[in-house]
Structure formats: structure tokens, C-alpha cells
Amino acid sequence: MAVRTRLEKMAENRARLIAAGRQAFAEKGFAAASMDEFTAAVGLTRGALHHNFGDKKGLFAAVVEQIDTELSGKARACGIAAGGGWEGLMAEGRAYIEMALEPEVQRIVLLDGPAVLGDPLQWPSQNRCLQATIATLQELSAEGRIRSVDIEALARLLNGMALNAALWVAASEDAAATLPKAIAAFEALASGVCVDG
Predict the structure, then answer these.
(1) Reported pTM
(2) Where does this protein bind DNA (predicted)?
């Protein structure tokens, strides 16, 4: 029982640090967020941060993973609501791009994320999204609804378009004005793979 209690306490501390880091990174950005401030805010020490994540960058990666996983889940729900298939895939892409308007997503995932963690296409959460896109495209290909092209290549390009559209929206001076242009271009380019009729 003592081992289970210790493991539960470790999981609780990890969750508290992620929540505190998420708030600090959203409010101040990665560079200005102070490890001492957000560990003290949840009654933990810098040692707890190092034990769970190694350093501030490790905590930031965990926060990005959490938010990006949430984004993928929300986008997936939009795809299901749209009926799945091609329409669902486009709904997922639109939803992902639209989430670039959320301040927390802009700051943590789309602006600081690539600067701190490197190429988003290499993040574990993005890889899971890629695998889901591949599965959908394989189904569409089997149904004859898309042109005969390499499925992985197509999935990587579609996901890359959605990601780059979101990055553009997040970095633009007027994100709300950029959003409809980004979505329209994403849909126009993506539609080229559909079989007519």
C-alpha cells in the first residue's frame, strides 16, 4: 500500500507541476517563466521539477504534449461530428487551424513550442495525429474517394498544411482576419486529392 501511495503522490506532483507550468508559460512565455515561481505556487521545490521533468524544457515539453493532445482530441471530435471520411478530415483540419486563435495555444504550442522544442512534426502528439490521418486516408483510398497517391506522403502534407496554417494564424498581426484565408487555402489545396463525383 505504501508503494501505491508514493506512486500516487508522484503522479499528483507531476500533474500539479504541469498545471502550474501551463499557466506560467501561457501568461509569461517560456523564456520569462520562472521555475521557482511556478514550483512555489504549487508548494513544491525545484527538486520536484528536476525529478519529474529534468529541467524547465522537460516540463515545457510535457505541457505542449498535454495541450497538443487536447487539440487533437477536439479536432477529432469535430471530424466525428462531421460524419467522418473526407468531410471529417477537413473538419479536423479546420478545427485545428481555428484553435490557433486561442491565446494559450498560440503562445505555448504554436509560438514558443517550435522555438523551444524544434520541428513540431517530430513531436509525439503530432505523430499520433499523423497515424490517425493515415488510417482515414487508407479507408478513403479503399473506397476510391481519393486519387491514387502514396498515403503517408499525402497524410504528411495534409497535416503539414494544417499545422503551417495554424502557425501562420498564430504569428499574424491580425489572427482573426488571417484565419478565413488560411482555412480557404487549406481546403482548396486539400480538395485536389479528391476524386470527382
Answers:
(1) 0.89
(2) 34-53
